[in-house]
């Protein structure tokens, strides 16, 4: 049994993570932390977990956390996370980091998009990116994993195989993304107040969303090209689920002038993901409801006029956060990749 | 043209009120106030009203308000409201008060339920209650009107005629109420955060909701009885609309041992509201969607086993707040009762 | 491994059931049936299950079903179900019946509420009612179980202990129930069309809902009294979750004139359910979201004025259908009661 | 007073239209039709209109309609509509046609996308397209107007000024569109059943939606270019509201190599719509809720990396259907353009 702790256990991704860990045959949860001064019971913080784990959230020092657990799931805000993670690694813990701190390879790009100096810049570029479908070998046995952002997960899984195969061009990629409101976190904010967010479809972060450089970096590195994606997220009046509709130009290596057609594009995806248990390449159209509550990513592709349209759907809290974390944890420890999922 | 001001113009009821007033042929809006320090433009506070009225919200003194307008719609919190209202009346303004301050007749009951000493207790018991269908004569020409609570509006319109006619007993009345989330106001709160309130049906204020004494007082005074209602509101994952399902015992004056049946009960309601343009007594079942965006109250009644079930539906922001206010305003000034509605 | 079949596998309860069975360590799904002529793949009928079970739904005869499985989960409509169930029992299968066919003890009551003559009337009164918290002993080793209705589950779990203890009176019980739309089934109907049901709170089946006699029978038998409940369900614009707000008069055996107060009432519930892993008696207020996706029933009770208010919440598709079925299955076969849940 | 009839009065657009017409000072509704055999009362078909107009829907011949009204709002399905419209025009009625029948100029394109031969092909190309902000002069005094599709309205209003000014290129335009479910009509369908559509974000009609040629034709004709838009609509779990996020390449006539930036692009829109009362060009981000229930179209534009992103929002049932129809009606008869709106 691996003793695990969850740092910053009050959020939605942490709630889903705890629910998954409670079902995992090789895991014992030994600590949950919060920075709130009172030390609330898990069942009061997450009523849906009432009766499943009799444990209080505590204000623990990093040393106390390191003492109590072998593997730490760190759900702290960016910058705060890296400061803790480096200490945990020094204390010989393993870590799955939910923040963006170890996703970008370049400290300057990090500073530019996150507005702070990186607290552990030396480690950047050496931490595997927690997308098993792309980087499984690097994740096996890893001591620290950078758990991906939700939008990058959906976008990269959709686009990476087509980009690498040359079926789409790296230039002019548009990613129109839609997410349920849980993706915006648990803090009550004016625009997320029910009567504001309900019955509202609202673009946000147009041209400024922090997942942009993450998508560019991973797509570019994986496919050996340089992308410059235009990424526009939208808030959808639903709890969970995320869908991206990506528009790309046909790639240079395409057969003939017109590029690949729908069937050929589907074949590339099917072949790429043939052995992946959590990727479902489908002929129909993905919708968020078909993946809600699961670790699946549904993907399809269409050739429409001069564009290739790739559509993918995930549950932002599971495949986009906690499920991916458990999948990475399993790879780190050599467990069955689907354990707990 | 009557010059009107809206005090506390940032909330949802104020937004709906302004939309109605902009359509009213006899009204000119001359001032909107807020206690926020910046003086935001109406279109920024309520984007749906953008382009309809080019006016900033201001921080005005009561004297400035009194100078700028003939009639004041006061959407301030309880206690704060009465303090301002008494000054406005002294300055010869007329007032429609949205707060609970002038609804209850007894200052002690007010203190008990609202937790503060009433700032204008001498006036209690002399202010007409703004339910035109019950108190039209008192409202005609009034200088101050206590605009009713949303739940009391739906509950009283449903129960008052049956109670007055003796068709139901004053003892043991249960009012199970359901409301859209806009009824909880515009301030972002943890339990009203979209991912919390969405897909959730949640009772609240069980046994403690402040509309309880208001319902008891009005029902009792109107019907000449003493009620002791049990009132349980529930939050429903929708924007607007309010429905009450009331359960009463058949009344003593009922014909025969078993009391009146559905058809006789419907006849009482139909007769009572025969001349009311905003009350629709229906044979079918009211739902909130049929009244959303309107000033209507839909009502039906059924005899089921030993109980009389009365169901009514309103739009909490219109018939339950702003629409009633405009209806009252029309009675105060002698305009057509439906003007602007 | 028990070989199981699901008859009528296209509905929502069947979908949830299959998801639970796929996680059950002692179960192998061997057949899924439908009366649709084409034999669709499970993943096309329930896209969320795509990739989890590679099986087509088939049109099987009862004999074929009996041949392929040891235990049958029968999700057929009432009347159709009993006809099949009696054959399955004759073929030595065990059955969990989701329909209402074996819930009522009296064939006349059945005919009156369901409008048909019971096809297997001799068996009525001999089939255990599948509420483990009340009838565990009868369910252990049973060959046929009548899986309860969703509303009866929530209502009976809330009221039965209080009724049996004499804390509430059997007379004048009102059950105001609220359900997400999945409770109305999967067939597209005009009033369940999204733009009709969304943003709508709608009472239905007022005084006529078929769960009324089921609630009366079970409450009366269990507590040794005679109830005559008034039951009013409401459709709530959300997927899943069911909450009942029940109003009862204090019982005759109550201490003093005024009856038991909140703390004493809570103590009765806590004691009654002390050993039950799926019942959470809480001091706070149950909401549907806290039980969604789980087999839990959250319950609380309040004394308010002259009434006792009992509130309970379940997931209508799990504790109100498929989860209860798996719990019953576990009792029938002597597995751990929470297996698969 | 103009006598008006509404043909096919059971749908959502017709419901909104009737509500608007009831407020119009120059209109008298003289007939409502349906092809349903019973002749239901308007209040039963559209409960929200109960009490506002005491009229039955009737099965009228075209001659009867022509006799009863001066102007006909025709809400019939495509092909069925043109057959009736040509008769109504022959009988000297004026017509606002909600169908797609007179929107496309080319009978072959119509056949290709709508799958039928056009019943009144000679009139194609001579009917003004009912977008007053682009074609006001042609609409003034018109006898027949082709009321635009909802998606084309939002898309064309956003893109046309930028395209005409050369700020964006006609090549490679992507229109990612999102709509509330009322846009799919009132017929209950499996994928629009509440438990299917709720909590679901679902692309549909990818590459095949019939609004594609309509958008291309109007954009191309208005701007004197040739577009080949890629149009992808998505179903959003909300009642009403439509938002398009359009991605275009900077145009050839742009200043410098990099093209116009956000401020310059906004200036083009502001100047173009300076005199338009129903277009609100905003610096912030449009959301559907800000336009719900109104005839407004909110638009903004951003330069992001290599793309120009244009975002617009309308209420699909009002500016996207009934409101536009009333605006067109006002132009046909010379009334104030905002009458009834």
UniProtKB/TrEMBL annotation, chains A, B, C, D:
- Residue intervals of the Semialdehyde dehydrogenase NAD-binding domain: 3-142
**PROSITE patterns assigned:** ARGC
Where is it mainly found? Answer: cytoplasm
Q: Does the keyword Disulfide bond apply?
A: no
Entry's Gene Ontology BP terms: L-arginine biosynthetic process
What Enzyme Commission number(s) does the record list for this chain?
Answer: 1.2.1.38
The Gene Ontology CC terms held by the record are:
cytoplasm
As for what it does, the entry says: Catalyzes the NADPH-dependent reduction of N-acetyl-5-glutamyl phosphate to yield N-acetyl-L-glutamate 5-semialdehyde.
> What protein name applies here?
N-acetyl-gamma-glutamyl-phosphate reductase
Q: What species was this sequence derived from?
A: Adhaeretor mobilis
* Organism phylogeny: Bacteria, Pseudomonadati, Planctomycetota, Planctomycetia, Pirellulales
What gene makes this protein? argC
């Amino acid at each position: 049994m691996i003793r695990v702790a969850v740092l910053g256990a009050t959020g939605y991704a942490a709630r889903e993570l705890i629910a998954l860990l409670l079902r995992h045959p090789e895991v014992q949860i030994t600590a949950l932390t919060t920075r709130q001064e009172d030390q609330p019971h898990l069942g009061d913080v997450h009523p849906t977990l009432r009766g499943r784990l009799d444990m209080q959230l505590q204000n623990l020092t990093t040393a106390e956390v390191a003492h109590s657990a072998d593997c730490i799931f760190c759900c702290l805000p960016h910058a705060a996370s890296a400061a803790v993670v480096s200490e945990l690694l020094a204390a010989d813990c393993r870590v799955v980091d939910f923040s963006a701190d170890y996703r970008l390879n370049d400290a300057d790009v990090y500073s530019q998009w996150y507005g702070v100096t990186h607290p552990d810049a030396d480690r950047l570029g050496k931490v595997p990116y927690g997308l098993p479908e792309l980087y499984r070998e690097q994740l096996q046995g890893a001591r620290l994993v950078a758990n991906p952002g939700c939008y990058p997960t959906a976008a990269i899984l959709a686009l990476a195989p087509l980009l690498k195969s040359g079926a789409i061009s790296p230039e002019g990629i548009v990613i129109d993304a839609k997410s349920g409101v849980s993706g915006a976190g648990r803090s009550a904010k004016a625009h997320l107040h029910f009567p504001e967010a309900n019955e509202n479809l609202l673009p946000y972060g147009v041209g400024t969303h922090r997942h942009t450089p993450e998508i560019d970096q991973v797509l570019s590195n994986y496919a050996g090209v340089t992308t410059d994606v235009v990424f526009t997220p939208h808030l959808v009046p639903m709890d969970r689920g995320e869908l991206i509709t990506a528009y790309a130009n046909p790639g240079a290596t395409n057969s003939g002038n017109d590029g690949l057609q729908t069937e050929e594009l589907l074949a590339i995806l099917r072949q790429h993901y043939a052995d992946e248990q959590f990727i479902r390449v489908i002929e129909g159209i993905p919708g968020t409801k078909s993946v809600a509550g699961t670790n699946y990513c549904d993907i399809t592709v269409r050739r429409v006029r001069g564009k290739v349209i790739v559509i993918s759907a995930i549950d932002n809290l599971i495949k986009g956060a906690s499920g991916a974390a458990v999948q990475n944890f399993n790879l780190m420890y050599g467990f069955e990749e689907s354990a707990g999922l």
